């Protein structure tokens, strides 16, 4: 058995090395299931990103579900606003995914800018993020893990959605999904409060969080746990009630004993208003609406006056 695995591994490496050369031994990044390296195509000289995922042949689960989801989703998505998957190499002990290379992610980009992204770039990057999600949602795909680390940026400030390991195709009506999605700082309040179901609106809440973070230079709801995050949200946007969010009191994790905070006002929330103006604040409120049914979709967001002149 071990000999067969080694043979398969050697064949994968040989096929891979015939087409690509890893140019830097140091990994560009590392995730839960593998490392990412820079490589170059021997045929076209195109520089690419290689994600190597080690597999355990003795594991009954085989290829991690996140990797399978990412491959399946990216095969269906063909958009300039979504990172491209060029090729897949697979053996019982290793999976290699070949992506287009993007020089940076939004988290590193914001750090390099010292948290001070010019207003026109905030608008442009927001438009590209919303456009990418419009493409996903039109294909009935929820990303479920929108955060700065999963938004890639190249030298020309082009933004693309990446890391579709938690993405899911959905149907109407939307079935119940797991709550273990979206990094807690960008997690929608309906998930934090235990809603039995959710939809594409969770992606749009995360867009609002990322939009505000680009404008202010810091995460908007930087909690160290689910309850701390929900309190961070309430402290800034006000504690919801059945008027601002019909049905909120019926959610499993909502407590009538929650502290009653009032909305701080965007002028008092890290000068957000100063960076994006009245129009940007209006769009931000549409994306950060408490009630999922009232939260704007990506398609509506693209038609908002703030983004009207931000497209290509």
The overall number of domains is: 2
Number of helices: 9
Parts with pLDDT < 50 across at least 5 consecutive residues: 1-7
What is the gyration radius calculated from CA atoms?
Answer: 21 Å
User: Which architecture of the largest domain would the CATH scheme give at its second level?
Assistant: Orthogonal Bundle
CATH homologous superfamily placement of the largest domain: Transferase(Phosphotransferase) domain 1
Q: Give the DSSP E fraction (strand runs of 2 or more residues).
A: 15-25%
Mean pLDDT: 87
**SS content category:** alpha+beta
CATH class of the largest domain: Mainly Alpha
User: What's the end-to-end separation, in Å?
Assistant: 54 Å
- What share of residues is helical? 25-40%
Give the biggest beta sheet.
6 strands, antiparallel
CATH topology of the largest domain: the name is Transferase(Phosphotransferase), domain 1
Tell me the number of strands: 11
Shape: globular
Order of helices and strands: HEEEEHEEEHHEEEEHHHHH
Binding site for ATP: 51
Subunit structure: May form a complex composed of at least the catalytic subunit CRK2 and a cyclin.
Domain Protein kinase: 22-307
EC number: 2.7.11.22
